[in-house]
Amino acid sequence: MKTQSLLRPILPLAALSLLVIASRGLVTAAQQPSSQRPAPAERTKAHEVTLPVTVVDKKGALVTNLTAGDFTLTQDGRPQVIQSLTTQSKLPFRLGLLVDTSRGVHPAIDAERKAAEKFLEAMLPADPNAGVAGERSTPPGPEKTSAHGNEAFLIHFDREVELLEDFTASRDKLDHELEQMTSTSQERKSEGPESSGDDRGSGEPRSSRYGGTQLYDAIYLASDELMKPKNGRKALIVFSDGADSGSKETLNDAIDAADHAGVEVFTIYIKGEEEREGFGNPSGHHGGIGGGGYPGGGGWPGSGGGGHQHPPQSAAGVDGRKIMQQIASRTGGLYFEAKKKDNLEDIYGLVANALRQQYLLTYTPDKADTEGDFHKTVVKTGKTDMTVITCEGYYGRSSGGDREGGDQ
User: Fold this and answer.
1) How far apart are CA 175 and CA 184, in angstroms?
2) Cα–Cα distance between 46 and 364 in angstroms, integer?
3) Buried b (16+ CB within 10 A) or exposed e, 318-343
4) Can you point out the beta strands (E) in 113-263?
């Protein structure tokens, strides 16, 4: 197993929670992002912004037949002109799998491995040189990427945050690390010095000085160290019970890091060991997006504070479900709840379909930003039976945010 450290800040965007829907899944289809080009400017350039947008109906099914005219958009309370809306793009996906390997979720780890492998099969080509998933061509060298550039990395976290496989287009490499993935052992921790919250870039896994699960640190590090330097469509898929008792970073720090990196976070919640009554029994619902009925159960688009609110802290007695809902809601991702471990393959299939069928909405802000401030965005549709899920906003270019500009 390779080990590396990661480390730095996160960001807030916005978004949603729904009920996990059975094997009927979300509609299949092609995919999303729209390209971004620098917008025409006068004295100061306002750069074109691209927002990933997901729309679902009352049953939680994806809506994929809308046009730009079906949406309205405001930035910082001011109406904006939507330039384009598309579900087709040549932009590559940059994906990160973050897997909780703490004791609380241990009974579901084998099911998680298999589900994550299925997800990678859907999102990465069988051959890193293939332009379409499943298409074979001349065997690539070990470091080559796919024709459309999709790549993924794998992190596991418990009382350490450990990068098991850096960005790669190779499913074989990622599958191998998934198969070998285990929780951090006391034996391995005793082999060398722990890396404290300030030992960044040391080449060692990042260890908790408190010995607890580091959910927030994992999101922060994945966003800031791995995602932030990348272009393309960026999403983290986080599997966890939502408990955090060891991170140096706060929930707001993690979400801010995601925001600055232009990352959507899709969360898959599973009850921790202490709440596991009936887990694995056949009575659980198949699929389901969100928790606690539709609509509702978590923050809806525009309901959060773009990183300026005080979220619940994860600790003993705190609801991990709400933590996971908030992470997804504020970053523009989707929240899923696994009622039982057999649901996981269905859920990862829903995540893959949602990513492929997202709209990319592009516009040029009416005011240029030279300070790198956070800008709150609200996207709505006039159709009352539909819900729009997107980020709560973005940071301007000078602060490193990737939602603005021509390179996303």
Assistant:
1) 19
2) 6
3) eebbbbbbbbbbbbbbbbbbbbbbeb
4) 151-157, 160-168, 206-207, 233-240
- CB atoms inside a 10 Å sphere around CB 76: 16
Q: pLDDT, tens digit, for every residue of 185-230?
A: 643 444 433 333 444 444 456 655 556 899 999 999 999 999 999 9
Cα 247 from Cα 232, distance rounded (Å):
28
Distances (CA, A) of 198 to 174, 191, 194, 201: 28, 20, 11, 9
Q: Which two tokens stand for residue 40?
A: 């025409």
Between CA 158 and CA 152 the distance in angstroms is 20
Three-state SS at 51 = strand
The residue assigned the tokens 């986080």 is: 238
Contact 288/336 with Cβ under 8 angstroms? yes
Per DSSP bridges, beta strands 71-75 and 49-57 are unpaired
Q: Please write the tens of the pLDDT for every residue from 96-147.
A: 999 999 998 999 999 999 999 999 999 997 765 544 343 333 333 333 334 3
Rounded Cα gap, residues 111 and 25, in angstroms: 18
Residue partners of 43: CB distance under 8 A and separation at least 6: none
Pairing relationship of beta strands 78-79 and 71-75 according to DSSP bridges: antiparallel
Residue at token pair 């099911």: 111
Residues 6+ positions from 136 with CB-CB distance below 8 Å: 126, 127, 130
Cβ atoms of residues 15 and 326 within 8 Å: no
Written as six digits, the tokens of 139 are 């065997």
Q: Per the structure block, which two tokens stand in for 375?
A: 């800008």
Helix, strand, coil shares, percent, the chain, to 5: 25, 20, 55
d(CA 255, CA 156): 18
Quick count: other Cβ atoms within 10 Å of Cβ 139? 9
Q: Using CB atoms within 10 Å of the CB of residue 123, give its burial: 0 to 12 exposed, 13 to 18 middle, 19+ buried.
A: buried
| 225 DSSP assignment | I
Residue 334 near residue 354 (C-beta atoms within 8 A) = yes
Question: Concatenated DSSP letters for 31-50?
Answer: -------PPP-SSS----EE
Q: What pLDDT sits at residue 113?
A: 96
Ramachandran quadrant class, 293 (left: phi over 0; alpha: psi -120 to 50; beta: rest): left
pTM for the predicted model, two decimal places: 0.73
Task: For residue 378, give the amino acid letter.
Answer: V
